[in-house]
Amino acid sequence: MIILLLNFVFYGQNLKEMKPIKFNKVETNFSDEFVSKYNSEESLEACRKIWATKGYDHLTDEERETLKFCDEFEGNPWTKKFQGCSWYCGGQVDTINSNIPYDFTKNIHDNDYGTPWIADINNEKNWIEYVFSPISSRIEDIIIVNGYVRKDDLFETYSRVKKIKLYIENKPIAYLTLEDTNEEQVFRFEPIGHIKDENYEPIKNTTWSIKFEIIEIYKGKNDKIAISEIYFDGDGHE
C-alpha cells in the first residue's frame, strides 16, 4: 500500500484551494559592491582568520561585518543558507522534468535564489515535475520562491505565478494560490510519499512524483514567467 496524501481527498476538478501557512523573508537585492566583495579572495582570507580564532558569540561588531562577505560553503550571495539537517538528510529527488529546456529546469532546485526557472507565458501549459526516489523521506512542506527575485527590478519585469494546479502521481490534488511577493511561501500537507515498514524500507519500491502546473499569473513587463525555487521540508529521518 502506498499513502501519498493523508486527509486530502478530492474528486474530479473540485479541488481544494490552498494558501501559504507562512512567509519567510528572502534577502536578495544586494548592491554591486556587496556582490563584488562576497567570497572574494580578500574577503575569504579575512574571514578565515576570524573563523580560526573566534567563536561567533565573541565577535566584535567589525568582525561580524567582515563575516557578512563570506560563506564557508563557498556559495554566492543568492545561495540558500545552510540550515543544518532537514528533509534533505533523507529526501531524494531523482529527476526534475519540465516543458522547457533542461538549462532552465535545473534552476528550480539548485539552492540559488538568483537563478530562476523561466518559461514563456504564451505556452499552452507550463509545468515542472519532481520525481522522487522510492526511499526518499516524505514531504510535509512545499516551499516556493515566486518570481525572479535576484533584483527588485527583475521581479517586476518577469511575470510571477498566481495559481498552481498540484498533482501527486499525476492525479490533481489541490490549487496552490500564491501571493505576489518575493518571500518564501510555505504550503503544508499531511506527509506526501511512500510509507515505510519497521525497518524504514519503502512498502513499494517505485518512484513517486509531484507536478506543478501553472494556471494563473501576475503579469510582468515581458512575456516570461519566473520561479526562483521550489524545494521541500519534512522530518527527513523517517
Q: How would you describe this protein?
A:
This protein has helices at about 30-35, 40-55, 60-65, 100-105, 150-155; strands at about 15-20, 20-25, 95-100, 115-120, 125-130, 140-145, 160-170, 170-175, 185-190, 210-220, 225-235. It has about 240 residues and is α+β, with helices and mostly antiparallel strands. It has two domains: about 15-30 and about 90-235, Jelly Rolls (Sandwich), CATH 2.60.120; about 30-65, no CATH class. Strands 1-8-7-10-5-3 form a six-stranded mixed β-sheet, with no helix packed on it. Strand 7 and strand 8 form a beta hairpin. Residues about 1-10 have low confidence and may be disordered.
Provide the descriptors you would attach to this structure in a database record.
about 240 residues, alpha+beta, 6-stranded mixed β-sheet, 5-stranded antiparallel β-sheet, globular
- Tell me which CATH architecture of the largest domain applies here: Sandwich
Instruction: Report the CATH C-level class of the largest domain.
Output: Mainly Beta
Helix and strand sequence: EEHHHEHEEEHEEEEE
The fraction of residues assigned to DSSP E strands is: 25-35%
Main beta sheet: 6 strands, mixed
**Helical residue percent band:** 10-25%
Which secondary-structure class do the elements indicate?
Answer: alpha+beta
Uncertain segments = 1-12
Number of strands: 11
Average pLDDT rating: 88
CATH topology name of the largest domain: Jelly Rolls
Which word captures the global form?
Answer: globular
What's the end-to-end separation, in Å?
17 Å
How many domains make up the 3D coordinates?
A: 2
Radius of gyration: 20 Å
CATH superfamily of the largest domain: Galactose-binding domain-like
In DSSP terms, counting alpha (H) and pi (I) runs of 4 or more, how many helices? Answer: 5
Name the strands of the widest sheet in spatial order.
Answer: 1-8-7-10-5-3
